[in-house]
Design a protein that fits this description.
The chain is α/β, with parallel strands linked by helices. It has one domain: Adenylosuccinate Synthetase, subunit A, domain 1 (Adenylosuccinate Synthetase, Chain A, domain 1, 3-Layer(aba) Sandwich), CATH 3.40.440.10. It is built from 11 helices and 20 strands. The strands form 5 sheets. The chain has a 10-stranded mixed β-sheet with strand order 9-7-5-2-10-1-11-15-19-20, sandwiched between helices. Strands 14, 16, 17 and 18 form a 4-stranded mixed β-sheet that branches. Strand 16 and strand 17 (338-340) form a beta hairpin. Helix 3 crosses helix 4. It binds guanosine-5'-diphosphate, 6-O-phosphoryl inosine monophosphate (IMO) and magnesium ion. Guanosine-5'-diphosphate is lined by residues 13, 17-23, 45-47, 49, 281, 285, 316-317, 319-320, 396-399. The site of magnesium ion (MG) has 6 residues, from loops.
């Protein structure tokens, strides 16, 4: 069988988000011509550090500090103010934002979506999901209900007026048209744009947002986001076939974190969890909320490796684990004494089996090769690699671009 076009590589987070995808995509992006986002919206927060420069991106792809084109795909849901605010902030830093394109198939997140998000959270009471309050869920609901407004619609003033009037939001017509005018140069036929790039041999890197365990279909439902965050979501979110996918790299933190509600079997409610939070500066980029922290979860990691069909992995934040006497890895779940799988993660009474490994005292931030890691850190990394079942591309040992062991 002949391959029809050039393939694109994917980077996805394989836990509950905030694995460090942004900084890893930034590093890979130096070898690509384009970085494309396929899903989510400004619920994402992707941090990048290059030298003294620090950026927190929400919707703009994490290749912005490299010399590549940036594409926001049709599977995303995007707030006009959020996008314009981000473009302005980047332009103020002297970054060329004219290379940022958004697909005509992306959906617009309106203020009424954020209001609905907050109202739905309040109505859930103690069952609230802990969303970012950005209107992501309601925007995807509108998309599926066929009452959403696409970026393509923004190019037609009468259509915007008609759809917003039908929606009972006439007051949004003027401000929407004004913002649409500013965004017009960035809106492209997304299918033509991306396939054109692939057909002309350009190297495309696909950037995941959120994490696999937040996937609306395969995550810890209902404590998930409203999009498909796994690698398969890239095909839908960009309008490409599975044959157009090359490598699939899973980014995984050396321990586990989660923001918001929902099951987290390896969570630590004690001072060890506190210590991970402060050593790893585990506070949300978008909401500032403290992240829940726990040991590396091998059951979850294997589940996510399967969901994504990983071909390689990257471990992040290994430096955070320096100074612990011993490190736990959750290697199994049990329910009433019998083995359980990740699908049971939220069942009350779930127990975990923990394997202990020796910790290390050395500061890892200056290590630049995996083989150069101190023996106990190397043993931990090799154990995680065996669990994931795919080779490691690199291990990050600090937030700055160069703090990588390869
Ligand atoms: P993303 O959503 O997956 O892009 O991750 P976030 O940017 O939300 O969260 C990752 C956080 O960890 C950010 O504050 C990064 O600057 C930081 N970070 C990334 N890699 C490392 C690392 O190897 N070591 C340390 N100490 N911090 C890191
Ligand atoms: P990045 O790309 C971590 C979580 C929220 C909440 C749930 C639903 O930075 O890894 P939503 O607003 O999407 O309806 O919230 O999903 N969540 C994230 N957690 N990182 C993210 O993105 C997240 N995006 C959504 O905290 O639990
Ligand atoms: Mg994040």
């Amino acid at each position: 069988m002949n391959k029809r076009e050039n393939t694109a590589d994917i980077v996805v987070g394989i836990q509950w988000g905030d694995e460090g995808k942004g900084r890893i995509v930034d590093w890979y992006a130096g070898r690509y011509d384009m970085v494309a986002r396929f899903g989510g919206g400004d619920n994402a927060g992707h941090s990048i550090e290059v030298g003294e420069e620090k950026l927190a991106l929400r919707i703009v792809p994490s290749g912005v500090m490299q010399n590549c084109e940036l594409f926001i795909g049709g599977g995303t849901v995007v707030s006009l103010d959020g996008l314009l605010g981000e473009l302005d902030a980047l332009a103020q830093r002297g970054i060329d934002v004219s290379r940022i394109r958004i697909s005509d198939r992306a959906h617009v997140v309106f203020p009424y979506h954020a209001q609905a998000d907050k109202a739905s959270e309040a109505a859930r009471g103690d069952r609230s999901i802990g969303t970012t309050g950005r209107g992501i869920g309601p925007a995807y609901v509108d998309k599926a209900a066929r009452s959403g407004i696409q970026f393509a619609d923004l190019l037609d003033e009468a259509l915007v007026a008609d759809k917003l009037t039908f929606r009972g939001s006439r007051d949004l017509i003027e401000p929407t048209l004004e913002r649409a005018q500013r965004l017009r140069p960035h809106i492209v036929d997304g299918v033509d744009y991306l396939h054109g790039a692939l057909e002309s041999g350009r190297k495309v890197l696909i950037e995941g947002a959120q994490g696999s365990l937040l996937d609306v279909g395969y995550g810890t439902y209902p404590y998930v986001t409203s999009s498909h965050t796994i690698a398969g979501g890239a095909c839908i979110g960009l309008g490409i076939g599975p044959s157009a996918i090359g490598r699939i790299v899973g980014v995984v933190k050396a321990y586990t974190t989660r923001v918001g509600g929902g099951p987290f079997p390896s969570e630590l409610h004690d001072e060890t969890g506190e210590r991970l939070r402060s050593a790893g500066a585990e506070f949300g980029v978008v909401t500032g909320r403290p992240r829940r922290c726990g040991w590396f979860d091998a059951v979850a990691a294997k589940y996510a490796a399967r969901l994504n069909g990983l071909t390689a992995a990257v471990i992040t934040k290994l430096d955070v684990l320096s100074g612990f006497e011993r490190l736990g890895i959750v290697t199994g779940y049990r329910l009433n004494g019998a083995p359980a799988g990740f699908g049971q993660a939220g069942v009350p009474g779930l127990e975990t089996e923990i394997e202990w490994m020796d910790g290390w005292q050395e500061d890892l931030r200056g290590v630049r090769s995996i083989a150069g890691l101190p023996p106990k850190a190397l043993a931990y990394v090799r154990r995680l690699e065996t669990i994931l079942g795919v080779p490691l591309d690199c291990v990050s040992v600090g937030p700055e671009r160069s703090q990588l062991a390869v």
